[in-house]
């Protein structure tokens, strides 16, 4: 397999609104990020993925962009951004920008023009249809609830919005629009950025005719996703984007792709395909969804996780590349979700990090994950800010859920779990701001914060730092072949990686029990070293007895 810098890198995601506020307005900003770059350097990450910092009315916290070439004023200026890039590069950290081009904001000049009249030159930058018998053009639902269509009273037609009505979908069928996007990308590439993370990029090609989909029983709106995910012209568009913008630069690309399969991922990321470097997929973070989707949550069955991650490891082996993550700005905190955020918080945070960072793929760390930040439980819905969460709450109450039931789903799955401010120290608001934070800080900041983690050599932070160092030291962690063992064991995740003469054995206990693990004969008798673990040494010989949330990585050569 071809060696590439982006396969050997560890990426750190910054959600700028919640990372660090430098000017006391309660909103994180670019100068705030600059002030924390030494912290990231200490952690050892290679690349920062910066969630959107462009001009935006913030209906969806920057994922609704009204000018792709300007910086959101709350975050600072273009000079601040240039300083950020420069300061990152001085520290050897690369920067990838979020590219949100499935949709723009309705406040983008293109849309302001488009809605003026049916013959406006920008009309065709968006997707317009006439209503059907006084109703929406089709029955697709928005990913944020309700219909995916909004009637524009002025022109009497509906426009498509797969997310909020302030996020109209761009019409990729239009070559003029596509070229504007490639030019805009080139403009950023010329500024020296190191790549793009592409928001729902596999949604950009819609099936001709936008057919109706079948709704779930009792529901008015259907998903529609089978008509807009991975659809006909997607590969053509990505290849064109690659040719016209990306191929001239040594940059990395990662495509956020809900609904992508390993087979499709091989097409999106295959070396000879000239599309993207890696996908960012969602199957493993959907395994705790019930039949009615994400809010209908159920506990994770570890065997499902093993089957799923193994499928991705095997099916992309040698012929594609994947992202490795449990956390991002759309997911609840993994230590609360898949680990134990009370007694074993640190142990389980380290275990989850181990299981992921020892796999093949590029690991992503989401701000705060490296100190084991947890989910939050705000008592009142008024403390929640996320549009998806607030829409869900309204709909759930309409559908007869009690307030408490709806809140329980939000506690388990809401995106604001990941968006409470970064906990820097034990001072007021966790050291995030001197003002009033735009969303409340998790009340546990007095115990869980970066300052405290930096003081403790045994902290989650230093464990992540070591995982990152190991990836740089051992090719086997990047390129070794994956093999699952103890497939049916309900409590432990055990796998190997192998490259040349070397083998890595990764042992992870996902629960607070003390399961005995039967390691295949011959293994432990041979010479080995422990590369990393969250307990001292191994317990037992032949049969190993794992302690609660134990993780160990053994190297045999
Ligand atoms: C995916 C992003 O990660 C999410 O935060 C956003 O709401 C949607 N795409 C729409 O842009």
From TrEMBL:
Task: Please list the residue ranges annotated as the Glycosyl hydrolase family 13 catalytic domain.
Answer: 13-419
Top-level taxon in the UniProt lineage: Bacteria
Family matches, as Pfam families: Alpha-amylase (PF00128)
Task: Write the record's keywords in alphabetical order, separated by commas.
Answer: Cytoplasm, Glycosidase, Hydrolase
Q: What class of enzyme is it?
A: hydrolase
List the InterPro entries.
Answer: GH, GH13_cat_dom, Glyco_hydro_b, O16G_dom_2
The UniProt record lists the EC number as 3.2.1.10
Q: Where in the cell is it found?
A: Cytoplasm
Single GO MF descriptor: oligo-1,6-glucosidase activity
Q: Which residues cross the membrane?
A: none
Gene3D superfamilies per the UniProt record, alphabetical: Glycosidases, Golgi alpha-mannosidase II, Oligo-1,6-glucosidase, Domain 2
User: What reaction gets catalysed by this protein?
Assistant: Hydrolysis of (1->6)-alpha-D-glucosidic linkages in some oligosaccharides produced from starch and glycogen by alpha-amylase, and in isomaltose
Q: Could you state one GO cellular component term attached to this entry?
A: cytoplasm
Family of this protein: Belongs to the glycosyl hydrolase 13 family.
PANTHER family from the entry?
ALPHA-AMYLASE FAMILY MEMBER, OLIGO-1,6-GLUCOSIDASE 1
What is this protein called in UniProt? Answer: oligo-1,6-glucosidase
- Source organism per entry reads Cytobacillus oceanisediminis
What taxonomic ancestry is recorded? Bacteria, Bacillati, Bacillota, Bacilli, Bacillales
